[in-house]
Amino acid sequence: MKFRAKIIDVGCLNHFTRVVNTVSRLTKACVLRLTCDHLYFVLSGRVATGGVGMWCELSQGNFFDEFQLEGVSADANEIFLEVAPENLSRALKTAQNAKSVKIKLTKKSCPCLTLAAELPSLSSVSRVVTHDIPVDVIPRRLWHDFREPQMPDFDVSIYLPPLKTMKSVVDRMKNLSNYLVLEANLNGEMNLKIDTDLVSVTTHFKELGNPPWGDDGSQSSSPTHRDPDLMTEARVDIRKLQQFLTGQQVNPSRAMCNIVHRRILHLIFLHEDVSLQYFIPAVA
């Protein structure tokens, strides 16, 4: 089982750092799944029991100049590692001006992701800063727990408003209640609401648009039989939504939200080479 990769392009390094920073703000621990073509940061939360779930997918060819992987066996050419993304984020911060960054799986006193950053130097001798990030290797028998989540059979899918605007609204509402209702319909309308014994506040968004999900089976089809004006809602822990909005450094080209009525809020951020899905369970 071997893994080594190298980043030379500073733009790719900064982009990868932003992705890791985003993940580190969403969870203290997650699984890093490595394949020949992709990297995945996976948080396999049990949404049914109140846990959040996350699936972040990166195409390795858009980030790494070199990428070599030998998985656990020929028929399972993958590696699953449990890692604290904050440790990886801290290591990458020291490498922002690096000439190159190498990442490899090593065996020290425990399995580690070793990150070696070659820093600029005024002399002919290069300076290399090395970080050993402890990881746990996930045995193959547990891999099925960290596969890509199924697209939920949602009732409404809608594009999100500008994220800075949405974050500002949620930040203010957090001071009034622990819970927020997000509701939307197929006319491109979305409301953020809180309702307590003392105050009721609603922020309205209109003309957001609804994503055109295909009918070819590759993605769930938008439920066209619904009344376009009928609102679908999910009541969620406002702190979990705020945490997701606060941590964003991916700058998505498209941001969408799928709602399973009173069950799940499924947030999707798409960039040209990164996709991030986040699942927040609804509360009664």
Automatic annotation (TrEMBL):
Pfam families in alphabetical order: Hus1
Assigned keywords, A-Z: Cytoplasm, DNA damage, Nucleus
Keyword Cytoplasm tagged: yes
GO biological process: double-strand break repair via homologous recombination; meiotic DNA integrity checkpoint signaling; mitotic DNA replication checkpoint signaling; mitotic intra-S DNA damage checkpoint signaling; nucleotide-excision repair; response to radiation; telomere maintenance
Principal subcellular localization: cytoplasm
Gene3D superfamilies per record: 3.70.10.10
Localization per Swiss-Prot or TrEMBL: Cytoplasm, Cytosol; Nucleus
Domain of life, source organism: Eukaryota
InterPro entries: DNA_clamp_sf, HUS1, HUS1/Mec3
Residue numbers spanned by region Disordered: 209-228
Signal peptide extent: none
UniProt GO cellular component terms: checkpoint clamp complex; cytosol; nucleolus; site of double-strand break
SUPFAM superfamilies on file: DNA clamp
Reported function: Component of the 9-1-1 cell-cycle checkpoint response complex that plays a major role in DNA repair. The 9-1-1 complex is recruited to DNA lesion upon damage by the RAD17-replication factor C (RFC) clamp loader complex. Acts then as a sliding clamp platform on DNA for several proteins involved in long-patch base excision repair (LP-BER).
Subunit structure: Component of the toroidal 9-1-1 (RAD9-RAD1-HUS1) complex, composed of RAD9A, RAD1 and HUS1. The 9-1-1 complex associates with LIG1, POLB, FEN1, RAD17, HDAC1, RPA1 and RPA2. The 9-1-1 complex associates with the RAD17-RFC complex. HUS1 interacts with POLB, HDAC1, FEN1, PCNA and RAD9B. HUS1 does not interact with RAD17. Interacts with DNAJC7.
Protein family per UniProt: Belongs to the HUS1 family.
Designated name of the protein: Checkpoint protein
Species this protein is from: Sinocyclocheilus rhinocerous
Gene behind the chain: hus1
